[in-house]
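Researcher: Structure prediction, please.
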Amino acid sequence: MVADTSLGVHVFISDQQTLFIHKTGFNRIDSLPVGGVEQSSFAMTKSGELIAIAIDLSEISNIVVTVVDVSTILTNENQAVSVPLAMFPVSNDEVLFFEYYDSTQQLLSDPVLSRNNIGQLIRARNGGSAIIVDMINLPSDSVFRACVRTKVISSFSYLSTTSSPALTNTLTVSTGSSDSTVSLNLLSASGSWTASDVGRTVHVPGWNSYLVLSVESTQSATAIPVMFHSDSSFTTHTAGDWLMFDFSASSSPDETWVIVENECVTSLEDVVSSGGHRRDDDVDDDQVRTEPSRRLYHLDLGDSIALSVKASADENSHSVMRDFVTGSLAVVFGNPRLLDIHSQQNTQTSPVSYQLSVSLSNRLSYQGETSVLFSLPRASMLCRQTSISFTIQTSCPPSKHLIYITDVHISKNTWLHGHPVDQMGRPLLFDLPPNYRPPSVQGVSVPLTPNIYNVHPDLPRLNDFYDVSKMSGELKQCVGARTRAECSCTDDMLISASVQYTDCRRRVRRLLHPGVLELHINIHREGRDDVKIAASKWVTIDELNDRRDYFIDSKAWQSESILAARQYIDTALPFLTANKVTLTVMGSG
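Model: Predicted structure follows.
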């Protein structure tokens, strides 16, 4: 199998070396008659083209790459079959087609008409077409193999008296030679049955249809009633009161009817991306451009999102085809237990478009990932895009973290290049020496922390005297680097408080002993405004380098909910009120 996941296209190769195409959200597949399959391998290009790769046997080193024009193949492929169809017009807009088989002859492996044809067209050679919209279940004792319901796109033409001279005569319907057949008799010799009438449908408007099975004589034919047996054993219909349609068994190039792929009249649009809801800023913009049918969102606790997709049709398309396709817009959830689905609404926003909207929120205590698939299952295989997939992760977004704000504001540029001072002219920032490691509880000169700051790989490690110090300390950003420049530290990494960027951190705040910091904690998320953490929330504080020479002045939460939360959170640290925390540092270094 080869696939283009961005457009939801899948191509399968069977063990009989036949190609089949499928689209995400569809309940059917189409065959692709491509020659030379057994000598080729297939792949999808980034633009969604199917290519065949083969080796030229005359010159082994020559690889031949051919673009498979899927649209042209599907457009030109007419499925002509050697079975007759009986038709029954329910109304001017709806027609039933019944597939017949002769039980005395060899039974075909599968019916020609199936759910795989829903969305395709039945087209008659002498005019008319209808889109297949549904399958009709038949009783087990029916003489017909399958039945489809169709909506008329263009009216089917009935035969003229030239094509069937019998139409000039008065028709009588009487009991046939078996329980399932009737006899169609002509009252006069003015017109007669011919061999070409076999397989055609005789239709009496407002009454019944009959599939002609055989011509017994010029005046008599045997047929099967399509819908029901007449309660009376004898009915008469004068010339002009009955019609004949030709959906007899066909074979190329003289097809009387064919099944063809419907033209593409629809398109899908992600309404969210056009401004309905701000896109999650953790999504890579390049991914959005190259994979238009995939979207990634993170939903944290308390987060919700509204997803909307609009299906629009060509204004010049037939209304029947337009409504049938756009009205099939549907949504499927891969793992619905992860989400609370608050609403799901499918509305017709204009005569040519439908919009499907869902409102989702993170379900408490569940973490994972699910897909949300919007699709047009009745769209044509010729459409480039028939589905839009969203990926929802119920977890903390990667860019979401806590930040603290002190009473002294220092800008990013000042952190990097400035030399700020306090009111007494004393420096507010301190430049760390190369390969600095904080002291431990065992002494100032006995660092044990795994974190190393202001790493210079070409210089010796600071205070690396004891074995316990030599065995600790790990490089992160500078792994494999030979010089400071090869660490590739960005400006953000140089001032980041994150543990993963300690290799890059060069400057820190300078405090007078004892150092006092009043911390105001905010929630930061890239691309969004910082949010001040509510007083009702709680936080934990831990020293990343395992130092103990500090204390915290803040109210600790003690409640039943806190005790209940501890069974889910693996920490012995106290839960502190989040709106204000005072940190007093007693040590040095």
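Model: The first helix runs from residue 70 to 76.
Researcher: Thanks, that helps.
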